[in-house]
Amino acid sequence: MAxxxxxxxxxxxxxxxxxxxxxxxILKKQHGAQNVFDFSLGNPSVNPPPEFKKALQQISxxxxxxxxxxxxxxxxxxxxxxxxxxLRPLHGIPLGAEHVIMTCGAAGALNVIFKVLLDPGDEVLxxxxxxxxxxFYVDNANGNTLFxxxxxxxxxxxxxxxxxxxxxxxIVLINSPNNPTGRVYDNASIQGLSEILxxxxxxxxxxxxxxxxxxxxxxxxxxxxxxxxxxxxxxxMTVSSYSKTLSxxxxxxxxxxxxxxxxxxxxxxAGLILYNRTLGFxxxxxxxxxxxxxxxxxxVDVDEYRRKKDILCHGxxxxxxxxxxxDGAFYLFPKSPIHDDIAFVxxxxxxxxxxxxxxxxxxxxxxxxxxxVDDATIVNSMKGFEEAFRxxx
Length: 393
Ligand SMILES: Cc1ncc(COP(=O)(O)O)c(C=O)c1O
Prior knowledge:
alpha/beta, three-stranded antiparallel sheet, binds pyridoxal-5'-phosphate
């Protein structure tokens, strides 16, 4: 075997999302892209807002001498200042540029954080359903992942989290708005979680860190607000990116923000900056840093996603599918009409509809529909969704 035994195992369990995406590409070659309904990948369909193009054009007209070189590994100061100025009122804490590191997306930020905080064997506790790439990021840092189920409505089960925390727990990682459920964890549960972490940190005599992964923070519906974890819990960090909120997933630009009150903050920041470099990123893409410094607070048109969500929810509910309406993000996570979610996803695939089984998110019996696609894809897929439902129920 050329690869290590561990990697061999990981390749075979690796992401259902990517597997369905690749299978979709084969179907598209066979049947033509317009005849395949690809809801597999969270790849934004909505174009970046006009402000993005304007900023990019403006930068390309500026004097470019000296701007293509290496920079401080944390990122350009003016970019970090602009991100901090945006986050300060949002979280209501005295965040400065020195608490922000520009990263290669949220994925890059999480890898850096895990590398810096985890000793071998330390546990990262993650509520499920969740984005399963987390497992690999934790493993990259020699940590172990411990999954804890949420309630049936996908809200945080604080008692289960309290029970699961042990002397091995170093990090609790939450993702809100959540991929795959669209659930936003409410204020009371964030408050409750932070109280549990305070108590448990004292019990075990070491800090438990709360990391909040928030790449979908700006994509919320019906007035829902995403509570701040930075505001309520001292040993916390927030991770985010412009992949979804500006539709820049391929540009690999994001950041991490550290609570200024975090204990031993100087050492932690030094570690994070070191690993932003030595994990091989060196720094986040320079051009994108310069662009996003100019357009803080700008987002894609969330109404576009709201409309897609409504078309999808209305169509599926009238067929008889059961689901909770998402508070945010661009995913719907319905119950599979048959017990075996993988078999149901295969039944949809026969109708050229690509979704991802809930098993791929640690939650069998459900499946995920990424509705960041053209309206026509949603509308034209309904016949296949109905046929598969009737066949299964
Ligand atoms: C919950 C979650 N976290 C992190 C990421 C990675 O995002 P990025 O492209 O910013 O690295 C994704 C991507 O789909 C995601 O869904």
